Amino acid sequence: MSKRNAYPGIDVFRMIAALLVVAIHTSPLSSASAVGDFLLTRVTARVAVPFFFMASGITRTRTGS
Questions:
Q1: 32, 39 in Cβ contact below 8 A?
Q2: Is 33 exposed, middle or buried (0-12, 13-18, 19+ CB in 10 A)?
Q3: Burial of 12 from C-beta contacts in 10 A (0-12 / 13-18 / 19+)
Q4: Would you give per-residue pLDDT tens digits along the chain (65 residues)?
Q5: CA end-to-end distance (rounded Å), the chain
Q6: Residue 40 in contact with residue 48, Cβ under 8 Å?
Q7: Fewer CB within 10 A of the end CB, N or C, for the chain?
């Protein structure tokens, strides 16, 4: 059994990125504000997908999986 390296900071940001990816697909603010939905899903959340893949790659290569 191998010891798993912990990356709590990266794991927190991965969780945030995962929630932003869900926001991209569901447009949670569309009924409240078109501008707010645009800013959340088309501007802010667009960094979530590349960050999630990079963070997942870092944790995969560091643990030797």
A1: no
A2: exposed
A3: exposed
A4: 455 567 788 888 889 999 998 998 999 998 999 999 999 888 888 888 898 888 888 877 776 55
A5: 12
A6: no
A7: N
Nearest CA to 17 among 46, 37, 59?
46
Overall pTM surpassing 0.85 (yes/no): no
Largest CA distance in the chain: 51
Altogether, the residues listed in the chain come to a count of 65
Q: How far, in Å, CA of 12 to CA of 65, rounded?
A: 20
Domain residue spans of the chain: 8-63
Task: Report residue 20 as tokens.
Answer: 């932003």
Q: How far apart are the C-alpha atoms of 25 and 28, rounded to whole Å?
A: 9
